[in-house]
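Hey,
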Amino acid sequence: MKKILIAAAFAMAFGSASAADIVDTAKSAGTFNTLVTAIEAAGLVDTLKGPGPFTVFAPTDAAFDKIPKAKLDALLKDKPALVKVLTYHVISGKVMAADIKPGMVKTVEGASVNIMSKKGKVTVDKAHVTKTDIAADNGVIHVIDTVLMPKM
């Protein structure tokens, strides 16, 4: 009887404490609402909930606010362009901040982003990294202050 109770306690403790994937982590942060909306509109939810691992340079709602509303609305309705923009924010593998090396890094979209570090400040293309290493069970999120735009 004691073994069953211990097993049940472990199941309750660990079974209900599952880590969140990239999408759920972004949702729970509360500062990536536009990004989550874009991921849903692009049909990338299942991908970013998949096993990965992924490293996502995630623009905040404030970053999306820098895009004129008409342009953002048009992008959200253009699924191929939206997929291209969103996958430009993702690299394969789980790359923590300490492991990021300056230089060109290939994105899931196919093009490369330029990662630079000067005086402790990291940029991805022209976006500044404002927070690093938000862990998810299928990767990591690094917060950026600007939406990255690949060549269309």
